[in-house]
């Protein structure tokens, strides 16, 4: 008798529990199967994390760092590069490098609004201008500073050779293939901002623990540009209005070609 | 009360309802057939009824025109109160219908129920299967999204290959030479009027045959069906252990039906409706069309076929398969029914199910399709970048830029069309990598004209680092006869450099 009463109670409890569960599902919570806002077409995506994750993180790494290409999540880099250059780099890409053009006008997938959203997203999320407030950071393009390759060679031997000489621990930057793939602007930017995510220091300590000057950086770039195979330099040459290094043809001509 | 009874009696005298009830629901079935194995047929019928009801409700809103079909589905999904749920029930109902129908067919096959004297029951069931697959295909077109468009395109191009009449058949199917507004109207008519009408007619015949020839008794191992004696044996079984279908044998069907209803409602609630995925615009290449699950295996088979097998697998094999299924009750008309004494039957079922499930799995994951967004969306794993030289880092960037990742995965992300590059350095030497990139081969296109020598150098330099630390890199069996100069970019004439840059 008591057994059957127990089982009756259990049954009642189960039915009560499942009815409450069902009611909760129907009335309380949003059913998981309910379609969301609908599929947003790729051109309507304006949200920075999605835009970045779809279009940029393949090369620039998750969260803007630890990627194969230039670190973006770096306050120093974002202080050095003018906003319009950032915008232009995304829109037009950097011809001759692995950075493709992203603007629809250039055959890329992004609308002008999306490019702006990316630029703003990068600036708002990763730039910290306060860190360098008042500090004289080297200029992005080195315009007006003529590089001296001879001096650059000396500086290279003093500041870079340990890590980047032929056969050195980190790997050569005087390698012909490497120099064929990077523009002078990319070299300049790399010297200025380093790779904080992979342990390469920036210009502030590269000069034997002291900051490299604008002139030092231009000299180093001029030296490296001289090492570039002449055939490649010829192929890389293009019109570069307002380019920096007038004194060094190869450097000046490709300095506007930008970052890698 | 008396008036009501008189009315009922009057109606019964005119409509013979009691007699109909007694001869259908009340007909005697072998007590052994009141088994859990026998519930799939009624479950399929229940799914069909759910499909008819929800389909009729959907038809109130759905507009079968190319300009409005997509919008009306969006309306159901987002505006109409619980409209999405209606769509979801219809979708999951169709999935369940195909699934239970398959279970029913397997059960009938394994229980030898197609043998004498139920040949026509089997054949009518086969036609029901074909009609249901027809409903599934036409229903997929109703969504009028990318899946629908490409599903239809593939269907039409298969049909177009039929010798002699292919062109006319495509014209008949699409209501014109191309997929257009008329196509949707045609498929709507098929989905809503013609095929359901056929299904209802065949169901009537199927049930009529079940009643006329009786439900198959639960097979006893060792019992042989003989045309001369089976009818008497069956009558004997009914006389000895026959029970009326209602209420004695129907209980398990009812319980299972309740389960099916709950299953469909819960699946619909949890997983929701399918699509519509994106507008059916053939110009959109960034699309990943997939058929519904019941056609995934065909999708995979078509994708994986070598050219020379296409005709065989598209037409000859299905025709032979269908003819074989139609002929099955005549080929194996008598003899043993129990699956315990029919190892070939059991093994065939296992083999066919495994093949279909494996193909469906391939269809779902479709490793042959490049992952078109991997190059820009899948980051190079940090472990492959730590401690790399500037040239190697650049090579990693180029690997992304040249979209190698779309076919080759790294760290589990990326396409699966080509081999993963995670340990490529253990398989190929640097020279072999250069050759592979430039000349392609083994299903990989040649990239010689799309990459410059320094780019190849950078990519290969990076790839030679892709190996587990404990595994040595691949090496040549003999030292190379000629070694390219390290800076071979230098030796390339400027004109060719410029060409390569293009």
Q: What does this protein structure show overall?
A:
The complex is a heterodimer of chains A (260) and B (502). With 260 residues, chain A is an all-alpha fold. Chain A is 51% helix and 0% strand. The longest helix of chain A has 27 residues, at 2-28. The model of chain A is unreliable at 237-260 (pLDDT under 50). In chain A, helix 2 crosses helix 6 (112-126), helix 5 (83-92) packs across helix 6 (112-126) and helix 7 packs across helix 11. The termini of chain A are far apart. Chain A is built from 13 helices and no strands. Chain A is elongated, with a radius of gyration of 27 Å. Chain A folds into two domains: 44-132, Cytochrome Bc1 Complex, Chain D, domain 2, CATH 1.10.760; 149-257, Cytochrome Bc1 Complex, Chain D, domain 2 (Orthogonal Bundle). Chain B is mainly α. Chain B has two domains: 26-228 and 238-365, Cytochrome Bc1 Complex, Chain C; 374-476 and 493-501, Cytochrome Bc1 Complex, Chain D, domain 2, CATH 1.10.760.10. Helix content of chain B is 60%, strand content 2%. Chain B has helices spanning 2-15, 17-23, 40-61, 69-78, 83-110, 119-142, 146-159, 166-174, 181-213, 230-241, 245-249, 251-271, 293-304, 310-331, 343-365, 374-377, 390-401, 430-439, 453-463, 494-501; strands spanning 28-30, 224-225, 242-244, 335-336. In chain B, the strands form two sheets. Chain B has a two-stranded antiparallel ribbon. In chain B, strands 2-4 form a two-stranded antiparallel sheet. In chain B, helix 5 packs across helix 12 (251-271) and helix 13 crosses helix 15. Chain B is elongated and about 105 Å long. The model of chain B has no long low-confidence stretch (mean pLDDT 90). The chains are: A mainly alpha (260), B mainly alpha (502). Chains A and B meet through helix 2, helix 3, helix 8 and helix 12 of A and helix 4, helix 5, helix 12, helix 16 and helix 17 of B.
């Amino acid at each position: 008798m008591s057994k059957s009463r127990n089982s009756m109670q259990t049954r009642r409890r189960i039915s009560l529990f499942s009815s409450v569960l069902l009611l909760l599902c129907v009335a309380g919570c949003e059913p998981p199967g309910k379609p969301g806002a609908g599929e947003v077409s790729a051109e309507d995506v304006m949200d920075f994390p999605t835009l970045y994750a779809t279009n940029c993180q393949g090369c620039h790494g998750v969260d803007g760092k630890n990627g194969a290409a230039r670190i973006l999540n770096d306050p120093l880099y974002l202080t050095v590069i003018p906003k319009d250059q950032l915008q232009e780099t995304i829109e037009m890409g950097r011809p001759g490098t692995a950075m493709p053009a992203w603007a629809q006008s250039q055959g890329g997938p992004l609308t002008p609004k999306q490019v702006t959203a990316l630029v703003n997203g990068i600036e708002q999320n990763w730039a910290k201008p306060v860190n360098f407030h008042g500090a004289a950071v080297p200029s992005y393009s080195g315009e007006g500073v003529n590089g001296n390759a001879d001096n650059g060679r000396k500086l290279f031997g003093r500041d870079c050779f340990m890590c980047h000489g032929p056969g050195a621990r980190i790997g050569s930057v005087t390698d012909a293939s490497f120099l064929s793939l990077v523009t002078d602007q990319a070299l300049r930017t790399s010297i200025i901002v380093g790779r904080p995510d992979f342990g390469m220091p920036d210009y502030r300590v590269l000069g034997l623990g002291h900051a490299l000057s604008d002139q030092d950086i231009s000299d180093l770039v001029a030296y490296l540009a001289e090492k570039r195979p002449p055939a490649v330099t010829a192929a890389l040459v293009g019109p570069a209005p307002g380019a920096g290094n007038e004194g060094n043809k190869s450097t000046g001509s490709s300095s506007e070609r930008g970052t890698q | 009360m008396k008036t009501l009874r008189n009315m009922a009696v009057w109606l019964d005298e005119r409509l013979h309802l009691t007699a109909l009830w007694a001869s259908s629901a009340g007909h005697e079935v072998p007590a052994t057939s009141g088994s859990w194995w026998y519930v799939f047929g009624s479950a399929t019928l229940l799914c069909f009824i759910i499909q008819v009801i929800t389909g009729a409700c959907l038809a109130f809103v759905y507009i079968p025109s190319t300009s409005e079909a997509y919008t009306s589905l969006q309306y159901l999904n987002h505006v109409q109160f619980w409209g999405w749920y209606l769509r979801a029930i219809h979708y999951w109902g169709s999935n369940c219908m195909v699934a239970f129908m398959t279970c029913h067919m397997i059960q009938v096959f394994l229980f030898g129920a197609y043998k004498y004297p139920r040949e026509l029951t089997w054949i009518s069931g086969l036609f029901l299967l074909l009609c249901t697959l027809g409903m599934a295909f036409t229903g997929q077109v109703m969504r009028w999204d990318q899946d629908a468009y490409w599903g239809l395109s593939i269907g039409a191009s298969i049909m177009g290959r039929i010798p002699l009449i292919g062109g006319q058949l495509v014209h008949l199917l699409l209501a014109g030479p191309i997929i257009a507004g008329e196509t949707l109207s045609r498929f709507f008519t098929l989905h809503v009027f013609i095929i359901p009408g056929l299904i209802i007619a065949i169901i009537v015949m199927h049930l009529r045959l079940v009643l006329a020839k009786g439900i198959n008794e639960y097979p006893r191992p060792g019992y042989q069906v003989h045309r001369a004696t089976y009818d008497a044996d069956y009558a004997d079984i009914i006389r000895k252990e026959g029970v009326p279908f209602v209420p004695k044998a129907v209980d398990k069907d009812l319980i299972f039906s309740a389960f099916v209803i709950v299953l469909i409602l819960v699946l619909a609630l949890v997983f929701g409706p399918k699509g519509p995925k994106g507008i059916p615009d053939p110009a959109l290449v960034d699309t990943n069309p997939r058929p519904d699950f019941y056609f995934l295996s065909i999708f995979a088979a078509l994708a994986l076929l070598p050219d020379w097998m296409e005709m065989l697998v598209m037409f000859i094999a299905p025709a032979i398969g269908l003819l074989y299924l139609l002929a099955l009750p005549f080929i194996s008309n008598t003899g043993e029914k129990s699956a315990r004494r029919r190892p070939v039957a059991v093994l065939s079922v296992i083999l066919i199910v495994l093949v279909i499930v494996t193909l469906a799995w391939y269809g779902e994951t479709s490793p042959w399709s490049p992952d078109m967004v991997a190059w820009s969306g899948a980051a190079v794993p940090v472990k492959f970048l730590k401690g790399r030289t500037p040239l190697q880092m650049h090579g990693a960037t180029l690997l992304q830029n040249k979209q190698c990742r779309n076919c080759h995965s790294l760290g589990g992300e990326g396409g699966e069309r080509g081999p993963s590059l995670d340990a490529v350095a253990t398989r190929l030497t640097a020279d072999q990598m250069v050759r592979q990139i430039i000349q392609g081969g083994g299903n990989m296109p040649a990239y010689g004209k799309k990459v410059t020598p320094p780019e190849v150098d950078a990519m290969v330099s990076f790839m030679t680092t892709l190996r587990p630390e404990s595994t040595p890199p691949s090496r040549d069996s003999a030292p190379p006869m000629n070694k390219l100069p390290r800076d071979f970019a230098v030796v390339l004439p400027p004109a060719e450099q410029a060409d390569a840059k293009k």
